[in-house]
Amino acid sequence: MAGGRIIGLSLGHALDREIFGSIAEKLDEVAPEAHFTTLDLLEYVKPSIKQMVWDRLSSVADYIPGKVIDLSTLLEPDLETLVGQLASDRLVDDLMNERPDVLLGVHPLTQQAMTGLSIRLLRDTALVTLIPEYCVDHAWVRHRSDLYLVASGALREALVDLGVPLAQSAAVGLPLSKRYAAVEREPLRREFGVGEGERLILVTSRELDEALMEKMLFQLSLVNAPKRVIVATDGDKRSAQFLRDKAPNYSVKAQLYHKTEKLSALYAAADVVVGRPQALKVAEILSRGVPVFWLEAESEHDRATAAILAAESAGKSVDNAYTLAAELDALFRDSTLADRLRRGALELARPDATREIAARLVRAATDEKERLIARRIEQGRGRSVTSEDEFEEIGDFAASDHADTSWTAQERHEHLSAAIRHAKTLEQRLREQQASLSKWEKRLILARQHKRPDLVQEADVRIDTYKRTIAFLESQIEIAQKTREQIKAGHVVGSPYTKSPLNWERSKEEDLERTFRGMEVESDLDALKRKLDG
Question: Rounded CA gap, 418 and 502, in Å?
Answer without folding.
Answer: 7
